[in-house]
Amino acid sequence: MSVQEVLPLGGLPSAQSGQFRADHLLVAEMVKPGSKVLDVGCGEGDLLQLLETRGIDGRGIELSREGVNRCVAKGLAVVQGDADTDLVNYPDDAFDYVILSQTLQATRQPRVVLENLLRIGRRAIVSFPNFGFWKMRLQLLIGGHMPRTENLPATWYDTANIHFCTIKDFVQLCDEINVKMERSVALDLYGRPVPLNLPWWVWNMFGEQAVFLLSRGGGK
Amino acid sequence: MVGVKSVPSPAISADERSHEVDHPSSKVAQFGIEQPLRLDCGVDLTPFQIAYQTYGELNADRSNAVLICHALTGDQHVANVHPVTGKPGWWETLVGPGRPIDPKHYFIICSNVIGGCMGSTGPASINPATGKVWGLDFPVITIPDMVRAQAMLIDRLGIDTLFAVVGGSMGGMQVLQWTAAYPGRVFSALAIACATRHSAQNIAFHELGRQAVMADPDWQGGGYADHGIHPHRGLAVARMAAHITYLSDAALHRKFGRRMQDRELPTFSFDADFQVESYLRYQGSSFVERFDANSYLYLTRAMDYFDIAADHGGALAKAFAGIQTRFCVVSFTSDWLFPTSESRALVHALNASSARVSFAEIETDRGHDAFLLDVPEFFDISRAFLQSAGKARGLTLKDR
After folding, report:
1. B143: Cα separation from own chain's centroid
2. Interface test with B, best of A38, A59, A86, A89 (most B CBs within 10 A)
3. B187-197: per-residue pLDDT in tens?
4. H or E segment to which residue B358 belongs
């Protein structure tokens, strides 16, 4: 069973959904149509284009000039910027959702970035590769080398990913900075959601990546 | 004696140039004493006229008008042969059939700015009160004044909301001023190689140019027109200095290097031995054929005074608070006159206002001038931005 089947997206022809990444489809499904969204680290704008098909007012920030220019050439509202330094320029509550898709691990200060996401947006959607995934563990345990996978092919010396974490680590951080997890989904190697009724340690073991819908906690 | 040749005299006489000032080869909108232009300096300019060109047709619901704002030494002849120089329009790379701003889709308007010398009222025009050329009696104008005059022209043309306002350099300043002064009348804004204020370095370069003009004895305290002369040497030097700021070290090196002009060896004189010298002299002498020296003083001054944040209590974001206009900001990597950092400051302010903004920095070694040159990435971005805005505006673009 694929994500597309699990998560039917309103307004999107099923034939079209195949061209989008599994985690993007999952993120898009979490966003209420008609809302205002900031995609931090939007790459070449694939997620923004998907959101546009759902009538969502999307904006993007992207670090690489090539990525930005390709987005702008697609007619998307994207600016060149850095999640670590430029989020402070956005006012409080400027967006309904702020999305950080597969970018958290590449920021210099993931905690500060996460706090900024939930200041700018009423909700945040964060997805990241799970370093607790069994294949990762196995490569380190048996192979004795830093893990490399199909989705994370870079070697340790040239990777942009400087702050890897596991699902368990991320959940701990959310608790620490009083962030409420409204929804959490782990996707396995094939982009299928790990069944919801299984315990956290299973997610942390079999989730290749995780997607969290977050909101501000009620205060401690 | 060491051989020396100064900048050649212009091939076009002062009469030919000044003919365009009062009798432009363009459409002209006249504004009588019942419609004065209220200037920032406190003076009401009246009567006055605006010379403009249009391309394409206004659609039935008047929603496809695009205003092009020209740069310091540009004019309304954006996409047609220039009546004085005979050269192609100054932005035919961007505006014209098959270009990103195509007259097939849009009603394109480009007007000569107030203070200019191609038909809109400026220091080279006749002052109706005296019957003589205004000269330095012309009131000092600002970028907001230019935009106020353009808004009066747009009213005259029966257009409420412009689909897009587009411009580079001083034209980009006008684009930003349009959005700050008339946010509800601008659906989308394409601001290229510009800034929300003129930097100290840029003011310094302008002062250099003005002093060069004023140091020419033919300037006559600004009253040269009464003597039938023109300070073409001073204005040419001003243009030469300014032209260097439009290029980059890399572009000059690639174009000219240390190559000699029509000779193998140095002449041991102050003749134009180097190609780069010859090029600059040509730029200077061709410029004075089409431009009025006092107009150059007034327009550079207008740019110097430009500071949107200062007009809004020092906070740039306030200038754009709650704005619905769709913005696209473009800068070029090698532009040191209006560097990317200036565009970035603008984008930060627009983000802080939650405006819908795209921002692209384009890699090129061609300096500030890049916005006028053939840079395909810039055209792709402009085209896509306008197409996407057109979709949001409900414009139906005709098939090519």
Report:
1. 11
2. A89
3. 999 999 999 99
4. strand B356-362
DSSP assignment of B83-98:
TTT-PPPTTTTTBSTT
Q: Which of B350, B359, B379, B380 to mutate to test the interface with A (most CBs of A within 10 A)?
A: B359
Q: How does pLDDT run across A118-136, given as a tens digit for each residue? A: 999 999 999 999 998 999 9
Question: How far apart are the CA of A44 and the nearest CA of chain B, in angstroms?
Answer: 13
- Between A218 and B159, name the one with better pLDDT: B159
ipTM of the complex: 0.80
Bridge partners (DSSP) listed for residue B49: B30
Contact (CB, 8 A) for A59 and A77: yes
Distance from CA of B173 to the nearest CA of A (A): 20
Choose among A57, A72, A94: nearest Cβ to B358.
A72
Report pLDDT for A17.
Answer: 56
Distance from C-alpha of B46 to C-alpha of B139, rounded to nearest angstrom: 11
pLDDT mean over B281-296: 96
Enter the tokens of residue A217: 């906690």
Stated length of chain A = 220
Phi and psi, residue A184, nearest 5°: -140, 135
DSSP for B200-252, written as a single string: HHHHHHHHHHHHHHHHSGGGGGGTGGGGT---HHHHHHHHHHHHHHHS-HHHH
Side-chain-side CA neighbours of B68 within 13 Å: the count stands at 29
- pTM as predicted: 0.90
pLDDT digits over B221-276, tens only? 999 999 999 999 999 999 999 999 999 999 999 999 999 998 989 999 999 999 99
